[in-house]
């Protein structure tokens, strides 16, 4: 499946019309494609609006017309037998109408709920893509900063490089060839604030090579540490650091 094929699936995805394999492939693409996320959000929002019930007030002249007809149209009294048939027919008609109305409401509710869910998913993907784009810009800003300084270290059989920009007050950690942490564990980055460790974010446990924008400002930290923590991270280090780096001069 080509990227062009994936770009053409926005409408079908918004209407929940893709088979499972294509939907899964498209959602992986959607997480990194801001233009598709925007298009899906627009399609889903339109579908949700169409699925919701709407009403419009009657025109003022309609009331006058109905009142006029009441006073001028003669009503013919029905006989008892035809009236009974009419009543039975009306009862059957009302029953059928109620079933039809219930079916329509159920269908509109189901479709509306699906459309709203798809819209929320698209919005989430759009926000994720925007956040990833902002982080990429911040990483590039730190790496290209005129005052950027670096320090490298061996980490668990791989290599790590710390890049710090004092002017931007941000740091980036670049890992290469690091093995995956044990199952259920994650590498966590820390700023060393004079012996007190402050969490600076988690690394992706499924990637051996990655670039991480460390969370928060450097704020005068004296160094950076890396520990192995339970999935989701810890408020304080629970293991001895596998690497410690002083801030580059």
Automatic annotation (TrEMBL):
<dbReference type="Pfam" id="PF22618">
    <property type="entry name" value="RskA_N"/>
</dbReference>
<keyword id="KW-0804">Transcription</keyword>
<feature type="domain" description="Anti-sigma K factor RskA C-terminal">
    <location>
        <begin position="101"/>
        <end position="242"/>
    </location>
</feature>
<dbReference type="InterPro" id="IPR051474">
    <property type="entry name" value="Anti-sigma-K/W_factor"/>
</dbReference>
<dbReference type="InterPro" id="IPR018764">
    <property type="entry name" value="RskA_C"/>
</dbReference>
<dbReference type="InterPro" id="IPR053877">
    <property type="entry name" value="RskA_N"/>
</dbReference>
<dbReference type="Pfam" id="PF10099">
    <property type="entry name" value="RskA_C"/>
</dbReference>
<keyword id="KW-0472">Membrane</keyword>
<keyword id="KW-0812">Transmembrane</keyword>
<feature type="domain" description="Anti-sigma-K factor RskA N-terminal">
    <location>
        <begin position="6"/>
        <end position="45"/>
    </location>
</feature>
<keyword id="KW-0805">Transcription regulation</keyword>
<protein>
    <recommendedName>
        <fullName>Regulator of SigK</fullName>
    </recommendedName>
</protein>
<keyword id="KW-1003">Cell membrane</keyword>
<keyword id="KW-1133">Transmembrane helix</keyword>
<feature type="transmembrane region" description="Helical">
    <location>
        <begin position="96"/>
        <end position="117"/>
    </location>
</feature>
<dbReference type="InterPro" id="IPR041916">
    <property type="entry name" value="Anti_sigma_zinc_sf"/>
</dbReference>
């Amino acid at each position: 499946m080509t990227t062009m094929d994936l770009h053409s699936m926005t409408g079908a995805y918004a209407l929940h019309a893709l088979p499972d394999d294509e939907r899964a492939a498209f959602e992986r693409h959607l997480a990194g494609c801001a233009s598709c996320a925007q298009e899906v959000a627009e399609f889903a929002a339109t579908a949700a609006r169409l699925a919701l019930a709407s009403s419009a007030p009657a025109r003022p002249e309609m009331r006058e017309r109905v009142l006029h007809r009441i006073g001028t149209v003669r009503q013919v009294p029905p006989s008892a037998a035809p009236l009974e048939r009419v009543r039975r027919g009306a009862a059957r008609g009302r029953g059928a109408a109620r079933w039809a109305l219930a079916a329509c409401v159920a269908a509109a509710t189901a479709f509306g709920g699906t459309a709203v869910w798809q819209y929320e998913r698209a919005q989430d993907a759009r926000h994720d893509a925007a956040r990833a784009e902002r982080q990429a810009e911040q990483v590039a800003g730190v790496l290209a900063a005129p005052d950027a300084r670096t320090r490298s270290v061996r980490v668990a059989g791989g290599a790590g490089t710390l890049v710090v920009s004092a002017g931007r007050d941000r740091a980036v950690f670049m890992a290469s060839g690091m093995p995956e942490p044990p199952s259920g564990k994650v590498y966590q980055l820390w700023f060393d604030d004079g012996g007190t460790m402050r969490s600076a974010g988690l690394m992706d446990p499924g990637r051996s090579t990655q670039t991480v924008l460390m969370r928060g400002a450097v704020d005068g930290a004296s160094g950076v540490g890396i520990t192995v923590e339970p999935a989701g991270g810890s408020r304080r280090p629970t293991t001895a650091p596998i690497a410690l780096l002083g801030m580059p001069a």
